[in-house]
Design goal:
Layout (H helix, E strand, L loop, with lengths): L1 H28 L3 H14 L2 H14 L4 H17 L9 H14 L3 H17 L9 H9 L17 H13 L3 H8 L11 H16 L8 H6 L7 H11 L5 H7 L20 H10 L7 E3 L4 E3 L8 H15 L1 H6 L18 H9 L19 H17 L7
Antiparallel strand pairs: 1-2
Helix pairs in contact: 2-3, 2-4, 3-4, 4-5, 4-6, 5-6, 6-7, 6-8, 8-9, 8-10, 9-10, 12-14, 15-17, 15-18
């Protein structure tokens, strides 16, 4: 009898605890909505906004007032609007702001409200030139005031408070407000770990470097615009290399070494009429690996793919080619191709040599985990900083860059 009583008491305690846990979980999940919401946010992160919208639709089918999903859907549509894609409905910035307001009004509990504010920062950062007034600071302050009343376990997808610091810091960074960005990012950089710690650390280092860089003040309009981009396409890299860093002058080196030929003077069909056609054609004369045109049998011709984002491994190959062309001695002696200081590139990797060189030359960096992430796209700030470092190599070889 005593044993039975103990078992019953334990069962009642378990059910009681389970009920508490269930209530906490329901605040986050709201039925089956949370998994769709999380998947939608991950799809945004990977750049697939169309599929993200469909995930948020599924979340809202399960619960039509799920605030996080409403805000997430508005974010996906805001990104599509900024990029010039999506439907006519997506192009209405005012409608997206109204959708954000609805999400804020539907938010249940401080955790959900915090998540919506963070997403609101991202929405307004993408629609900055399409909406009147600046509410990003308001969203940040409102979310910041919720830190002490929110448990991080109740933040699906965002996971911890570092998300607020990162996305606010990124919004300021993209406006060129590097000092203000550093102040925000430093709130999360004091030895804390979490989902966003690596991004916070990387963005903070980039902000410090750009803030203190004399060279940045001499860069042109395109470079300043690109500095805040999440991706940079092949045509923009070509334009930067030619206009800002006068890479066309490398033709002198190619000619003097007998390596130059005029076979690259044909015009890939997808470059004709492009706003950076002149820069791309100048670049093709220099023969930079990583930015070559590709023969496509289907079209029976070469394509440059000007709108394709550049990956980190492609940028490493571009840099290696440039370094080798401007100073063969330096590329062989100063930039020894030693084992790369990264955890995700092995000696047998086809990109091993170029990645080894750029890390050893301190032209590119690994992340806080020691990974190089070769297949990820290059963001604007990293590209600008890398080219600023490259300019020092130019100068050390007597090839001045005048803007």
């Amino acid at each position: 009898m005593k044993i039975t009583s103990i078992v019953l008491a334990g069962l009642l305690m378990f059910l009681s605890l389970a009920g508490c846990l269930k209530n906490d979980f329901l605040k986050v999940a709201k039925g089956d909505s949370a998994p769709y919401y999380i998947k939608g946010m991950e799809l945004i992160e990977s750049g697939d906004c169309d599929k993200a919208v469909s995930m948020f639709d599924k979340a809202l089918d399960s619960k039509n007032d799920f605030a996080r999903a409403i805000a997430g859907q508005a974010l996906a549509q805001a990104i599509a609007t900024k990029q010039g894609g999506g439907t006519e409905e997506n192009m209405d910035a005012g409608m997206l702001d109204d959708k954000l307001e609805r999400a804020l009004s539907e938010a249940e509990g401080n955790g959900e409200e915090f998540s919506v504010y963070v997403t609101g920062i991202r929405i307004h950062a993408n629609l900055r030139n399409m909406l009147q007034g600046d509410r990003i600071g308001h969203f940040y302050n409102a979310a910041d005031n919720l830190r002490t009343s929110v448990r991080e376990m109740n933040l699906p997808y965002y996971a911890d408070f570092g998300a607020l610091d990162y996305f606010m810091g990124k919004a300021l960074f993209n406006e060129g407000k590097y000092g203000e960005a550093i102040e925000v990012l430093d709130k999360h950089s004091e030895g804390k770990s979490g989902k966003w710690a690596g991004k916070v650390d990387s963005l903070s280092r980039h902000a410090h470097e750009l803030l203190n860089a004399d060279r940045y003040s001499h860069l042109g309009e395109l470079a300043r615009e690109i500095a805040g981009r999440d991706t940079v396409d092949r045509a923009e890299v070509a334009a930067l290399l030619i206009d800002e860093f006068q890479l066309g002058r490398l033709e002198e080196y190619s000619q003097s070494s007998g390596e130059s030929d005029k076979g690259a003077r044909f015009v890939p069909r997808d470059v004709i009429g492009h706003k950076h056609e002149l820069e791309i054609m100048t670049l093709l004369e220099v023969h930079i690996r990583g930015l070559e045109p590709v023969y496509v049998p289907k079209v029976e011709g070469f394509l440059f793919y000007p709108d394709k984002p550049v990956t980190r491994r492609e940028l490493a190959l571009i840099l290696k080619t440039v370094v080798e062309q401007i100073d063969t001695v330096s590329s062989e002696k100063e930039f020894q191709e030693r084992d790369p200081v990264c955890s995700d590139v092995v000696h047998s990797d086809v990109n091993y040599d170029s990645i080894s060189l750029v890390i050893d030359a301190k032209l590119m960096e690994t992340d806080h985990t020691g990974a190089f992430r070769p297949h990820e796209t290059v963001d604007g700030s990293e590209l600008i900083l890398t080219l600023m470092r490259l300019s020092k190599v130019f100068e050390s070889c007597g090839l001045t860059v005048d803007n």
